[in-house]
Design a protein that fits this description.
Length: about 290
């Protein structure tokens, strides 16, 4: 795949290690929060145990400090019997049993809390060990690698600058080509207009040429008919002249006829020149049409 001088960005080892370090730091912080929560829970449990022990000690101290009284009933003057105060021992035993039960539950809860705390401590130690390993790996990166990465960065920056310059050159070239394209379009439109004008001129000239050809043919036909008519008239007049010359009788009519003959000869010459001129104009018109 052609990349036109562009190379895809590659992650540096420092960036990868930075991401791993950030992930481990987040995990360490999470474990630290869990550890603090477990510590708080442990402190609460210890406080509850302390309170239960204090209550137990107070109960035991209160039981030991009471005087021993007789369990026999005392008869009053009214004849009724009253129980001895020694019957409160049962309630004290009940309190002690409840305290022992609560103490057992608290000890069980404390054991579970200590187990969770030890697990969190082990996880924290493993994460700290991984963090130390990553730190040692970061410290193991040599100065040569850093220099090489800096050189690669400078090379990439140089390539980017070169590509930007090339992009600018290509943009200038595109602008120049667009200008040339617009100029050529204008020239083509102008040539198209000239061509349409030439076609219209050719059509007009062809119409003029057709009319000129028709006029030439008409003049040629008239000229031919006129020649035949003049020839016949000249032949008749020649016959008359010969007859007159033979008879040597020149009358006034004969002189008029001879003048008419001379006049007809002059007209014939004029018509011949006109026909030749029209033919020349037709030839010039045909050459001009061929040139167009």
């Amino acid at each position: 795949m052609e990349t036109y001088g562009y190379k895809p960005k590659r992650l540096l080892p420092t960036e990868i290690e930075k991401q791993s370090t950030e992930c481990l730091t987040y995990r360490v912080e999470t474990v630290a929060i869990e550890n603090s929560m477990l510590k708080n829970e442990l402190n609460v449990t210890n406080r509850e145990i302390k309170e239960l022990l204090d209550r137990l000690h107070r109960t035991e101290d209160g039981e030991a400090g009471e005087p021993v009284e007789s369990c026999e009933p005392v008869v009053e003057s009214s004849g009724t019997t009253v129980e001895s105060p020694g019957t409160g021992v049962d309630s004290t035993d009940t309190i002690v049993d409840n305290s022992a039960e609560e103490l057992g539950k608290t000890n069980t809860k404390l054991e579970h809390t200590e187990i969770n705390y030890r697990k969190a401590s082990v996880d924290k130690e493993s994460l700290l060990l991984q963090l130390e390993q990553l730190k040692s790996q970061l410290n193991n990166i040599t100065t040569n690698d850093i220099t090489r990465y800096k050189e690669q960065k400078r090379e990439f920056e140089t390539e980017i600058a070169v590509l930007r310059e090339r992009n600018k050159d290509l943009e200038e070239l595109v602008k120049l080509l667009k200008e040339k394209s617009r100029e050529k379009d204008n020239e083509y439109s102008k040539m198209d207009n000239d061509l349409r004008h030439a076609h219209s001129t050719i059509n007009v000239l062809q119409g003029d040429l057709g009319r000129s050809n028709g006029e030439c043919k008409r003049l040629e036909r008239e000229w031919e008919s006129y020649k035949h008519r003049v020839k016949s008239m000249l032949a008749a007049k020649d016959k008359e002249i010969k007859a007159l010359q033979q008879g040597v009788n020149f009358t006034e009519d004969t002189k008029i006829l001879m003048e008419q003959i001379e006049h007809l000869k002059e007209e014939r010459e004029v018509l011949s020149e006109a026909v030749n001129r029209v033919r020349g104009e037709c030839g010039d018109m045909k050459q001009y049409m061929e040139t167009l």
